[in-house]
Amino acid sequence: MKLTAAVLSCALCVAGSAGGAWLSRPEEPDYAAVLNAAADVYAVADSKGEPTRLYVSTASTQGSSAAVQRVPASAAQLPWNISVSYSLDGPNVSAAKIANASGLVGVHVTVRPAHGDAGKSANRTVPVAAFTIPAQVAGDVSADSNVSVSAQGSNTLVAAIGGQPGSSLEFSCYMNAKHFTMSSIALAALPADADGDVTRLTSTASTLVDSLTDAGSGEHQQLVDQLKALRANEQQLAQTVTSERAAAHKQTFQNYMAAYVGSYTTHLSGSIGTSTQLPALVGTAGELSGDTPLAQAVLDLADAVNNVSAAHMHDGAVDALDEVIRRIQQQGTTGLVDDLTKEAAEEATKGSKQYSVGQSQLSAAMIPYSMKYTDVYTARLSALTGGSSANAVAYARQAIDETNSSDELKDSQTKVDAAMAALATACEHTGKAQALKQILLRFSDQFEGGSTPAETTQDTASDSAVRLLSQGLADMQSQSFYGKTKAAQARRKAATARRQAQAARQQQSQDSNASLVDDTMSMSASDVMSYASGLTSALGGGKTNSSAGAGAESSENSTDANAEDGSAATQAKEKDTADAAPILFGFSQNGTGGTLLTHDMSTLIAETVEIGDAGQLIAQAVLQLGPAAALQQSPSTQAPAYLLVIPTV
């Protein structure tokens, strides 16, 4: 046997040295030839501004689609270099510090020809740079005179074009920003003689992802149409439900304050004065718990807060549907299930945590608001009664109306509004999580390459789970009580996932417009009373609830307790759904065991999607800039067009 191996090894060495096929290494691709034939070149830069790979497209012929080939970034140097810097209230800052910052933000872009031979090719192209800023971040953007600033839907488009081919492009823009963010910067190097290259460059950019996924097949149009119908329904619900509940919350809030100062009025004695009478307020604090009209008003307010906050779950569902539709249109359903499953879990966690924070924020805001309201009310009541508490109850309604219309409550009201906005944002995350999970369940049989069991494999899912589990345990462990228990758990989870998917698809078939979210929420009694217990504790009167954890002097531990209590119902729902989430089983197609290995295309898909977005951005920029004259200032050349995506904040 050893002799045979030695002879075979010798023969292979001879074959290799003689240029035999078995041991000859594949020749390096001729990247120079690929680049010379390039019509368009695309790249996405990393965090250091350097691209990791190039996507090279040759021009299409006779109606055929352009051929795209991936080339290492080391094979060529791009003709243009771009640098981006930021300033905040004057001084320059890093990208990390400018992200989510508020203040006077400056964005400074510099585009220069590269050094060496690459720089020479820059003399045949004109740079165009563009990016967007969400309108909600900054509604008023100013820029240098060579920059175009225009509204594009919910974004502000900032674009600029170089002058002569090969000349540098530098510009700055400024804005008073709130929680600053911006898109990546798209840099296009366009041949100086032909507008047609712009159309070809941007249209090819949008189809790069098709070579990696099933996005361009058109087979998902029915799915996209179904999702669009759901989106239209959620948009309608977002408008109507939020409007109705906002009105109800406003009325309930006024009823709560009326009950609050109404109770306070009954405890007034002697001369009223022009500021809060603390003995009367202490008496009111005693009615914040128990079977009293004021305690009921607190409960009603808590329900109204929950209802109007939960209405924003429909906004989250719209956001989820927008994202899923866009991703299917851009990248098909390849790998979509696993991505959405992960994102749903992340959104659920954000929603739960942020809602607990919002509850504490609202409870803390209600303390100064209530104190200020009582001060203003007392002054109004004193003026109406001549300072005597004898007829105070008779003038209470008039004093309440005057207090509600007073400008003195604006600052305190702003804090309450900010807390309500925080609760609404938290519910958007929760709604997005619920919507993503429902989409996965309702349309799992139409998603490709995901972990949700399809109809044809659902019956074997439990057995596969047990087999995979057994393979991960030693023989003795798999037959132990622990191993059998884990196997039973796997069967139950797979069966629950199967039932949920079947129920969701049945619901979708019966009512295609059924909402993707459950826009109801509940709170524990301790959280409900947290609106008032902080004030009670601050005054040192009435009954307190140690688990409310939302007063002015609440500790970190009590806040944690409040978070746990406040989201108990939500967490229970999330836990049930998480435990029943689709499970990824690894098993071979012939049933002999082992794990199926799949090539992870997510990085390439993400890059090509970014390039597609940048192509759309450049198309909008060119339309806005109207650069036809600038692109016709030199004789015709055969220079390729370039599109580079530069990450920002």
TrEMBL record:
tRNA-binding as UniProt keyword: no
Protein name: Tubuliform spidroin
Region forming the signal peptide: 1-20
Species: Bifidobacterium cebidarum
Region (Disordered) residue spans: 484-516, 540-575
Presence of keyword Signal: yes
Biased composition (Low complexity): 497-508, 545-558
Keywords: Signal
